[in-house]
Amino acid sequence: MTDARSTINARLHSMLTIGTEGELPTDEILRLRHFTVFLVLGIPTMVAFGLYHLILGNYTLCAFILISALGLSTGWYLLRHSAHRHLVYQCNALLFAGLLLYMVAVGGTDGSKCLWVYVFPLICFFLLGRDEGLWWTVGLLGMTVGIFLLPMGGIRQYAYSGDFKLRFVLTYVIVGAVTYWFE
Q1: What is the DSSP code (8-state) at residue 150?
Q2: Nearest in space to 155 (alpha carbons), one of 57, 55, 60, 50
Q3: Which terminus of the chain has a smaller tally of CB atoms within 10 A, N or C?
Q4: Is residue 18 predicted with pLDDT exceeding 60?
Q5: 112-148 pLDDT tens trace
Q6: How far, in Å, CA of 109 to CA of 89, rounded?
Q7: What angle do CA 90, 85, 42 make, to 5 degrees?
C-alpha cells in the first residue's frame, strides 16, 4: 500500500512540477498536487455529466459543466506556464461556484444536485488556504441560503423542504469546519 501511494504521489508531483523542481516552495507544490487530484477526478466526471445533460437537452447545465471542465484544463496548462497560480485557483473556484449555485437552484432529482456543494470547501481550503478559503466557503453558503430563501426570476427553482435546508446548512458548516481544521 505504501509503495502504491508513493508511486501515485510521485506521478502527481511530476505532472505539474516538471521543470520547476527547486523553484517552488513546498506549500505551492502541495497546492499543485491538490489541483492535480481535482483535475484528474473532476474532468472525467464533468465531461460525463456534461454529455449526459447534453443528451437530455439540459443545455444550460451542460454549458456550466463543460465550462467548468474547460477551466480546469486551462488552469492545468496555466499552472505549468504562468507565475499567477493563485489567480488560476481563484478563477477555477469562481467557475465551480457558478456551476454549484446553478445546480442548487435547479435541484435535480430529489434535490440531489445540491450535494455537490459539499466538495467546495475542500477545493477552497486546499487551494486557496485557510483565510481566503474561509471567505469563499462562507460566501458560497450565503449564496446557497439565498437561493433556498429567495425566488429567482428565469429559473425554475427546486422546492427544497425546510428540513433539508436546515440539515444542509448544518452539515455544510461541519464539512467546512473539519476541512478548515485539516488545512
Answers
A1: S
A2: 60
A3: N
A4: no
A5: 999 999 999 999 999 999 999 999 999 999 999 999 9
A6: 30
A7: 60
For residue 82, name the pLDDT band (cuts at 50, 70, 90): confident
Question: What HEC string does 54-122 produce?
Answer: HHHCCHHHHHHHHHHHHHHHHHHHHHHHCCCHHHHHHHHHHHHHHHHHHHHHHCCHHHHHHHHHHHHHH
Query: SS in 3 state form for 21-52?
Result: CCCCCHHHHHHHHHHHHHHHHHHHHHHHHHHH
Whole-angstrom distance, CA of residue 66 vs CA of residue 25: 32
Contact 9, 34 (CB under 8 A): no
Say if CB 54 and CB 108 are below 8 A apart. Answer: no
Per-residue pLDDT band at 22 (split at 50, 70, 90): low
